Amino acid sequence: MSLITLTTDFGDYSPYAAVMKGVILSVNSDVRIVDLSHRIPPQDVRHGSYFLATTIPYFPPQTIHVAVVDPGVGTERSILLAEACGQFVLAPDNGLLTGLLDLHRPAGMWRITESHFWRSPVSATFHGRDIFAPVAARLASDPTPGHFGIAARERVRLLGQPFRVEAQRIIGCVQFIDGFGNLISNIPSDELSRLATSISVGGSELVGLHWVRTYGEAAPGELVGLISSDGFVEIAVVNGEASRRLGVAAGAAVEIIV
Amino acid sequence: MSLITLTTDFGDYSPYAAVMKGVILSVNSDVRIVDLSHRIPPQDVRHGSYFLATTIPYFPPQTIHVAVVDPGVGTERSILLAEACGQFVLAPDNGLLTGLLDLHRPAGMWRITESHFWRSPVSATFHGRDIFAPVAARLASDPTPGHFGIAARERVRLLGQPFRVEAQRIIGCVQFIDGFGNLISNIPSDELSRLATSISVGGSELVGLHWVRTYGEAAPGELVGLISSDGFVEIAVVNGEASRRLGVAAGAAVEIIV
Amino acid sequence: MSLITLTTDFGDYSPYAAVMKGVILSVNSDVRIVDLSHRIPPQDVRHGSYFLATTIPYFPPQTIHVAVVDPGVGTERSILLAEACGQFVLAPDNGLLTGLLDLHRPAGMWRITESHFWRSPVSATFHGRDIFAPVAARLASDPTPGHFGIAARERVRLLGQPFRVEAQRIIGCVQFIDGFGNLISNIPSDELSRLATSISVGGSELVGLHWVRTYGEAAPGELVGLISSDGFVEIAVVNGEASRRLGVAAGAAVEIIV
């Protein structure tokens, strides 16, 4: 049975994610649906991009991923099907695939145009139900992207959140705050060739920060710096929430003096 | 493998939904369980009714839906099995099926009475575990409703939230607020034969409202009126939350002057 | 297809639970993954212990349960595989299995040591991805615990939350507050051989409490005492939230005068 995963900002309070499951299973009952998340913050394409880049590479070849964080639904934005990591990803062409495709060069990209696979009529506000779900379900039995659209060369990219390395400092930002309140920066750990002498987040130097290998090496309540599980500089509070303690949101500047 | 879907107000913080999955799989391991939602607001039968009416019709024939929003658990309220849209729905007879069965006339209804299919003893507070789960699991291998109870003619109906059309106005209410804060009214879009000249929600006229086809046709922060994906008049704030902006809760009056 | 369940404190806002699903399916695509919960409160081992003890016994034999509430990840704490209720449970050895294994004596326990089954290199902060997921996926095709580690005799136990019975009173605590705000104490209902004459929670006597069999036997808003679905003394507010009304958190003292 083919695997179809779902990543949306619909929440599970609303019926939208459940409706997509119904449409997928009605078109092709021979698939297994795996929920990745329906709690991407509403319309937060950047969070969605990080989420997909972090999760998709772990899935087996041929998995079909459907990602719907789509504030431009019903406008001229198109829908992209990309093949990357030996898998397929279907997403609005609004930058949602920036993280994934910048890291894993796509083997191909297609713009979804073949409307006879869609539900009819197509609504102006719910393409998850009317286009994404039926296309994914049919792709599971016919993994031939060219049947669903035309080859694409361009894609929308989110403006970068670059980090830069200077003589004695590295400047980046908080790219993601996880459910524990840990701050995941966009600074790859291998840039830290020398021990940091100080680190600032959101313009404030973190006083009393300990560099550790894992959370349990410091006492509860202590502020620590470490390498995140996907290889970035991370700031955490042991058994606490760094984001709340420091009053920091995603996007905050991170500056490391080495 | 048969499909069994779950819709509850249990949350996933509590063990109750997981317990139901265990019971279902212990009775019949040859089923696929699909979560629709465990985040129906606690004991909110009206929200559950809207949710089920909006989602169930999209599922394939023979799907078995289990819905537990059940403030009257353990009292004299009975448990209803209905066949509608070629599918089965198991729910407390407390109005939870109002939306679905008002739209899709049931081919049959049964009151669950055959207690030898239940867990024993039956608790007074968790029929999801003791009755709904084992009955659904057995129904998957024996789709003969009459084996589980007796034919029923009546069902509890929620008091309507009717809309009424007058010479120059249509009066209805907000039937649902989704996870984006969009207000979904109960006024079908085809009642809007003439362009609305003004619209009020909760007694306040919405000044500066634009009528659009989809969210992206107005600027971020603008208040828009449009047709929801299931065909009702909807009020939204582009990239924002209309419910918060307007301070409106489900049930608020909606008045359209045409 | 083998069943693997997941119980974590990762939330579904973060990518961690989705990553574990990807790793499991990449190692062994022939498994069915069932989400129990990803909403155990962050690092709340006691809540996790209650959750697992309440849910696992309902699952079929041979189910593999993976539980990750793991504040000590990356430290010397080991990972335990236990066989109980004819099923397997994989969890950090931090007390998370206290509730389950105190109720259901394990047929065997092993400490996970065979690192050639793990992802390599193993991160210091995400053993869910690097150890738990691949071990569970391989255990599904080779249910021989001894292949994955060495027999263990000891396990970490949470300090008990005992109740004690005196001549005229029973003293315990609130062991769990569910999603409805119901307070589930740790006092087994069969200790209540005589009718309670008064009950206090958090030091305050509950005035006007009615003892009922089920919620619907009292009026909305009334404070009731009853037997929970897993057999403990429970305090609830009909159609309301007892935890909020009484301002009580998990762990609060419960005293019953009989």
The span between the termini of chain A is 51 Å
* Quaternary: homotrimer
Rg from Cα of chain A = 20 Å
Largest sheet of chain A: 9 strands, mixed
Structure class of chain A: alpha+beta
Give the SSE order of chain A as H and E letters. EHEHEEEHEHEEEEEEEEEHE
Note the total helix count of chain A. Answer: 5
pLDDT average of chain A, as an integer?
A: 95
The proportion of residues in beta strands of chain A is 25-35%
Low-confidence stretches of chain A: none
Shape of chain A: elongated
How many strand elements of chain A?
16
Largest interface: A-B, 32 and 37 residues
Helix content of chain A: 10-25%
What's a quick, concise take on this entry?
The structure is a homotrimer. With about 260 residues, chain A is of the alpha+beta class.
Descriptive account of the structure:
The structure is a homotrimer of 258-residue chains. Chain A has 258 residues and is an alpha+beta fold. Chain A has five helices and 16 strands. In chain A, strands 8, 9, 10, 11, 12, 13, 14, 15 and 16 form a nine-stranded mixed β-sheet that branches. In chain A, strands 2-1-3-5-4-6-7 form a seven-stranded mixed β-sheet, sandwiched between helices. In chain A, strand 11 and strand 12 form a beta hairpin. Chain A is elongated and about 60 Å long. The model of chain A has no long low-confidence stretch (mean pLDDT 95). Chains in contact: A-B, A-C, B-C. The A-B interface holds A 9-16, 18-19, 21-23, 25-26, 29, 32-33, 35, 42-43, 71-75, 77, 123-126, 129 and B 3, 5, 7, 32, 34-41, 50-51, 54-60, 63, 178-180, 213-217, 226-229, 234, 239, 241.
